[in-house]
Amino acid sequence: MKQKIAVLTGAGVSAESGIGTFRDSNGLWEQYRVEDVASIEGWRRNPGLVLDFYNARRRQLKTVKPNNAHRAIAELEEKYHVTVVTQNVDNLHERAGSTNVIHLHGELTKVRPVDCCNENDGFSEKQVFDIGYDEIHIGDLAPDGSQLRPHIVWFGEAVPKIEKAIDIVEAADIILIVGTSLQVYPAAGLYRYAKADAPIFIIDPKDVNVHDPNLTHIKDVATEGMASFRKLLSEREKNFE
Ligand code: APR
After folding, report:
1. Residue-range definition of the domain harbouring residue 120
2. What is the mean pLDDT of residues 24-31?
3. pLDDT at 121
4. pLDDT value, residue 8
5. Mean of the per-residue pLDDT values for the chain?
6. How confident is the model at residue 116 (pLDDT cuts 50, 70, 90)?
7. 20 lines ligand 1 (CB under 6 A)
8. Does one domain contain both 33 and 144?
9. Whose CA is nearest to atom 8 of ligand 1?
10. 210 CA → ligand 1 middle, Å
11. Cα-Cα-Cα-Cα dihedral of 19, 81, 79, 75, to 10°?
12. Measured in angstroms, how far is the CA atom of residue 1 from the centroid of ligand 1?
């Protein structure tokens, strides 16, 4: 029976692919006002600005590739049952080979009708369309006649997949957190649902504000940190043999 690993990732895991993080110096939220481009109020105020913001991020996503951290996370599937629970909206985990990815905050390559549902019911996946790296503009309508919007969870909206993510963390034997400042809830609170005896590893080059007896902080960038994590895992596997 393969042990279960829950891998909780944030923007830092994609940093070495060339996608900027949000809160590091010169991060995305220093270039744009988050309330203008990533909130439901911003969408209501100026939908065109929001569509341009995500069109630009989709164009960039087409030009970048997974890095060795994404690949190392995918390779964990050889020996472990891995679920990636990511806050990222990029598709780099999938492109690196991860087969079990939950996107808590939506997916950049997907869009859905703006009228498909109310904020709390969530949306049925059948109303979600994959446009790859294309753009959408005001006037691009869904089959139901309503405006298409990015399939992204904006500030002020519910996170429909959080319950599923909690189940994944509660069932995990090992928790690996890579590249998130753990500032945005409910995603930031997920690790607290870990089993009492589940080791928690955090890969981040900066100090982390997590104080847990089971915590190992691998203070490094994601690619190097994943190499160290793999070494720690092999030592752990030896102890279990
Ligand atoms: N390798 C690993 N971690 C890194 C690297 C790197 N090369 N570079 C930066 N980091 C770390 C930073 O130290 C920080 O802890 O990645 C984290 C990035 O934090 P944020 O920019 O806040 O990104 P994230 O935690 O994913 O943001 C969460 O906020 O705006 C919302 O919806 C958006 O999903 C996003 C959420």
Report:
1. 20-63+109-152
2. 91
3. 56
4. 98
5. 94
6. confident
7. no
8. yes
9. 12
10. 15
11. -20
12. 33
The pLDDT of residue 123: 65
pLDDT at 119 over 70: no
Q: What's the pLDDT at 115?
A: 80
Q: Is 153 in the pocket of ligand 1 (CB under 6 A)?
A: no
- Do 75 and 115 share a structural domain? no
Across the range 120-149, mean pLDDT stands at 88
Q: Of 29-38, 94-103, 113-122, 137-146, where does mean pLDDT reach its minimum?
A: 113-122
| 202 CA → ligand 1 middle, Å | 12
Q: Residue 235 maps to which CATH number?
A: 3.40.50.1220
Q: Say if ligand 1 is within 6 A of residue 92 CB.
A: no
User: Could you give the percent of the chain with pLDDT greater than 90?
Assistant: 89
Residues 12 and 25 in one domain: no
Q: Indicate whether 31 and 121 sit together in one domain.
A: yes
Task: List the residue whose alpha carbon is closest to atom 15 of ligand 1.
Answer: 181
Number of domains into which the chain is organized: 2
Atom 36 of ligand 1, nearest CA residue? 184
Mean pLDDT (whole number) for 62-82: 98
| Substitution site in 34, 54, 64, 181 for ligand 1 pocket (most atoms within 8 Å of beta carbon) | 181
